[in-house]
């Protein structure tokens, strides 16, 4: 069960060596399910398009004796992913040692002073956190008026600011990954090549075998045919519950498919995401990934 949060620090952490720091949180990563795409940011309009970066005091880049390409440095610092970094550099928003640098292949030396939008940045150490999300919390954390954001659950688990990878609505529970690694987050939430997730879905009535077969073959929706990689009954004696295997970024698609066939989803739980499970992790609790899990995550 989730711990009481009367002190507004979130549930008990399972790591004893975590550091804490205060600071506002703004989501940087969202799943892209192909249904809605936000407007592309115009990097050429200048610094007004970007929030100022707070002066960072996190650890220096591992292996800092080596030069690092500027776009990778910005990604490691948690500013953006590498592709976006090229646009930021071209727009003249990056300074190195007091001079604007627009060269894509520029390599940052350990002794260089790098500023983005006028604010000094240092590379943050990459952190990865796994939360067993309870019902009632939402991954949209940029709206101050939103009540019960998932960031309340992890509190200040690390001195680095972490962001949820992908989206989960209030009714959805289960595995939710947080990180400040923009490149990995983007790869995991790619609509076609993203991480595989396994969902446990409970419907309002038994799923007919004909509908199960139809979903396996693809269901025609108003915007085209929708496919799910795999669907099975969780128990032949309880046909209200099914297991679904699909690419990341298609959570809303699952709702739409069942609605088109006359079913409502009563419960949807993410059992696995990118090979990560909630085993030994109580609802509402979190833990940091170990080195082996991080290595596995980056190779997916």
Low-confidence stretches: 1-38, 46-64
**Number of E-state strands:** 17
Give the integer mean of the pLDDT values. 79
Order of helices and strands: EHHEEEEEEHEEHEHEEEEHEEEH
Strand content: 25-35%
Oligomer: single chain
Number of domains: 2
CATH architecture of the largest domain: 2-Layer Sandwich
Remind me, CATH topology of the largest domain? Pseudouridine synthase
Alpha-carbon distance between the two ends: 31 Å
Which terms summarize this structure?
four-stranded antiparallel beta sheet, Structural Genomics Hypothetical 15.5 Kd Protein In mrcA-pckA Intergenic Region, Chain A, 25% strand, 300 residues, nine-stranded mixed beta sheet, alpha+beta, disordered N terminus, Pseudouridine synthase
Walkthrough of the structure:
This protein has helices at residues 70-76, 82-90, 151-154, 182-188, 209-217, 251-260, 291-298, and strands at residues 68-69, 94-96, 99-100, 107-108, 114-116, 119-121, 128-133, 163-164, 172-179, 196-203, 219-221, 224-226, 230-235, 238-247, 265-273, 276-277, 286-288. The protein is of the alpha+beta class and 300 residues long. The chain folds into two domains: 43-121, RNA-binding S4 domain (Structural Genomics Hypothetical 15.5 Kd Protein In mrcA-pckA Intergenic Region, Chain A); 128-298, Pseudouridine synthase (2-Layer Sandwich), CATH 3.30.2350. A hairpin with a 7-residue loop joins strand 8 (163-164) and strand 9 (172-179). Helix 1 (70-76) crosses helix 2. Residues 1-38 and 46-64 have low confidence and may be disordered.
